[in-house]
Amino acid sequence: MIVKRKQLNLWERLYLPAVIGGFKVTLRHFFRKKVTMQYPEERWVVPEGYRGAPYLVKDQDGNTKCVSCQLCEFVCPPKAIRITPPGSTGPGADRSNAEKMPREFEINMLRCIFCGFCQEVCPEEAIFLMKDYSLNGTSRAEMIYNKEKLLALGGVHNDPIRKWKHKADEARSQGMEP
Amino acid sequence: MSTATPIETKPAPPPSDKLKVRVNGKEVEVPKTTPDPVSGKPLPTTMIQACFIAKVEVPHYCYHPKLPVSGNCRMCLVEFGTPAIGPDRKPILNPDGTPKIAKAPRPAIACATPLSPGMEIYTDTPTVKLMRAGVLEFLLINHPLDCPICDQAGECKLQEYSVDYGQSESRFVEAKVHKPKRVDLGPRIVLDDERCILCTRCIRFTRDIVGDDALGIVNRGSHNTLTAYPGRAFDNNYTLNTVDICPVGALTSKDFRFQMRVWFLKETKSLCTSCATGCNTVIGSREEKIYRYEPRENNAVNGSWMCDHGRLNYKWIGREDRLREVCSPQSTALSPQSAVLSPAERWAVAVRGIAEKLKHAPAGSVAMIVSARQTNEEIYLLAKLARALGALTDSVPRILEGDRLLLSADRNPNSTGARLAGIAADPMGANLPKIAEGIRSGHIRTLIVLGEDVTRHGIGADLLGKLETLIASDILPNETTRLAHYLLPGCAHAEKRGTFTSTKGRVQKFMKAVEPPGDARPEWEFLRELASQVTGQAGAASIEGLFNQMAGEVPGFHGLTWSGLGDTGATATI
Ligand code: SF4
Ligand code: SF4
Ligand code: FES
User: Fold this and answer.
1) In a shared domain, residues B100 and B190
2) Contact at CB, B177 and A87, closer than 8 angstroms
3) d(C-alpha B147, C-alpha B27), whole Å
4) Between the N and C ends of chain B, which has fewer C-beta atoms within 10 Å?
5) CA–CA separation, B95 vs B472, rounded Å?
6) How is B23-47 classified by DSSP, letter by letter?
7) E-strand spans in B99-182?
């Protein structure tokens, strides 16, 4: 498509009025409150509910909460999560009645789109999108966070329900080995 | 007519061996009797079977079409009505002349209620839905709700019906009854008694189908617990079928335990290769790794079952030491070190080299030992080649002990195919000593071995060393492949398509589930190239075409077509 160049009128061709108009905008902003932040020395306050990087958490007793159900791996739209289930030879679960936990858990932060589906689908409240937004590394491999790293970054989640502990206690009170 | 014959001669079926019923208003005609799944005796057709024929789903747990009816879970409750009879014993008619239906005051379990003529079954009334929700709530009161750690999740009937009839919140506030968890039932089975809904499918299967009365329920009321007979393990050769039929995650497989969530598994229709019965299977694989075999229903072959021996015989497919490279110490281009050629080029060089050798081999100087674990198509191509070369051929028999249910004494999946194509001697293995003798006398100079380690079958390394050319194709390394002058890496059945002929002559096809490693290619592909280069006849280039071509040439397969085999196969003339 050819767009015809509009013929400029005399006022427009004078050039100076347009320059003055531009300077007016500049001056207006010059005296306003500054919004530029000296990142990274200065950081903004991340609001509640912000969806940053997904990390794994432990419960208040120091147990890995993830039971390797692989629902997040299934739901993750960009396939950023990769879980290696324990199989029969893998590590036993921290809470023995939870029976399993992942042998390996990797999130490729380069693929993650921070949608929060993993947190939403997790039946064990073991993965949360936290406030980290600045993720960097010097190689692609470094951006694949493994289980150890995810747990270290995720920290502790104060779980009010403590399903597995409750189940174990209830079973023991009936004389059953949980 | 012999007088000794018992009164089993069937009378011509009377015209009234069908009856008409209505399912949700739709009229269906169903047989009056259905054979008992175990004894084969005719039993009155039940409401659930009529619903099945009418293609109306009735949720159920304890009913299984291949097991005797037990009627304990109550999930299949339906409402029904029968034609009303007046005091004069005559049907009461509606004003429009149709029979008036007297709706039964109470529901009935569809799995155990026989039909009567003119019966009407209602499966979609609000009452039926409420009953299902109620039964489900009862089944779940003591259930541990541990789907995140349960291997059945994704194929669990409790989950499925909960989606349809369940509640999102539990009304149960009391403490749940706790039962034994992680019970070691036998060498292949783990039991979680808290998940068990006491449907007794497993008990009926092992008692009535396998004939091993190993399981039972002990304790009373909500403490009912499934257990193995005290002091003995649940260890017959069919235990893993109970994992399939257990509608919940109570019985799980030790082998598959915590390996992979089922929703990731790609399902491929396949066959079991561990014996000549040819049980139909489904291969569950994810990203080129096989996780499990499951039986696939084929009433002409294996019903819904398969044996544990065959089911667990898959790990070798993913072994690290699989043969991956086409190599030939005789050709510099194919030495293991030369990485200059692409796999396709390596195959071309190898096939051309072998074809040259075979073309110049004097008649009768070539012999072939072809495993009866190769497919019909591969055996057919080799038989063609053998005829062109005047080669002496045979297969290796594998006879062990069978059992009365499925496991055949013949552990080759395709002995019948090898016989039909004329590769195997009669009896199979009879030519092996002749081949050994031929090599010893220097009369046989070229040996083609497919899928066997001949050093374990009477043709030792010393004899192989005397050969001018040893061409071997196999999947895993062995003494024969080590000595081969041409080594052609082949595929497991899960990595290619093809057909096997079962011991009863059932020709069945299997599909490709995973990619072969390295250079490995389906044997039929390179055998076809080889056969066409040696004989000068091109032959079909696709597996479908090849099968059809074979069906035209091998008398036993006459009339069969690849597409005509369908999922469950067709019968060859044996
Ligand atoms: S936040 Fe979304 S994209 Fe990122 S790991 Fe979770 S599910 Fe995947
Ligand atoms: S273990 Fe499974 S098949 Fe056996 S009774 Fe319990 S629910 Fe039924
Ligand atoms: S399926 Fe009918 S009672 Fe269980």
Assistant:
1) no
2) no
3) 40
4) N
5) 82
6) ETTEEEEEESEEE-TTT--EEEPBH
7) 101-103, 108-109, 120-122
B304: Cβ contacts below 8 Å, ≥ 6 apart: B66, B241, B244, B245, B295, B297
Domain of A143 in residue numbering reads as 46-160
DSSP summary character for residue B206: I
Q: Is any ligand 1 atom within 6 A of the Cβ of residue A114? A: yes
Enumerate the β-bridge partners of residue A144.
A108
Query: Is A101 within a domain?
Result: yes
CATH assignment of the domain containing B475: 3.40.50.740
Rounded Cα distance between B71 and A52, Å, is 53
| B258 and B287 within one domain | yes
Q: What is residue A81's predicted lDDT score, i.e. its pLDDT?
A: 98
Q: The complex's ipTM?
A: 0.87
- As a whole number of angstroms, the distance between CA A42 and CA A60 comes to 32
Question: How many C-beta atoms surround the C-beta of residue B22 within 10 A?
Answer: 18
> Is residue B480, in this structure, part of any structural domain at all?
yes
Contact call for residues B413 and B271 (beta carbons, < 8 A): yes
Report, in angstroms and rounded to the nearest whole number, the Rg of chain B calculated over CA atoms.
Answer: 29
Report long-range pairs for B286-293 (Cβ below 8 Å, ≥24 apart). B286/B260, B288/B514, B288/B515, B289/B318, B289/B514, B290/B314, B290/B317, B290/B318, B290/B494, B290/B513, B290/B514, B291/B256, B291/B259, B291/B260, B291/B265, B292/B253, B292/B255, B292/B256, B292/B259, B292/B265
Which CATH number covers residue A104?
Answer: 3.30.70.3270
Q: Structure tokens of B356?
A: 């040259």
In a shared domain, residues B444 and B473 = yes
Tell which A residues from 104 to 143 touch B, by Cβ distance under 8 Å: 123-124
How far from A50 is each of A132, B277, B544, CA to CA, in Å?
9, 60, 56
Query: What domain count does chain B have?
Result: 3
The pLDDT assigned to B9 comes to 47
**Tally of CB atoms within 10 A around B467:** 19
The whole-angstrom separation of Cα A99 and Cα B58 is 34
Any bridge partners for residue B27, and if so which? Answer: B22
Beta strands in B464-517 (DSSP E): 469-474, 486-489, 498-501, 506-510
CB pairs under 8 A between A and B: 56
The per-residue pLDDT for B394 is: 97
Nearest-neighbour CA in chain B from A172: distance (Å): 9
Partners of A171 on chain B (C-beta within 8 Å) are: 178
- Quick one: B312 and B343 in the same domain? no
Q: Range of B189's domain?
A: 170-318
Which DSSP letter does residue A5 get? Answer: P
Q: How far is CA B356 from CA B336, B386, B566, in A?
A: 21, 15, 39
Tens of pLDDT, residue by residue over B185-221, are 999 999 999 999 999 999 999 999 999 999 999 999 9
C-alpha distances (whole Å) from B4 to each of B10, B11, B12, B111, B456 are 15, 17, 21, 39, 51
Indicate whether residue A107 lines ligand 1 (CB < 6 A): yes
Q: What is the per-residue pLDDT across B232-277, written as a single tens digit (0 to 9) for each? A: 899 999 999 999 999 999 999 999 999 999 999 999 999 999 999 9
Residue found by looking up tokens 């062109």 in the block: B388
Cα–Cα distances (Å) from B396 to A91, B14, B369, B371, B439, in that order, read 44, 51, 8, 6, 17
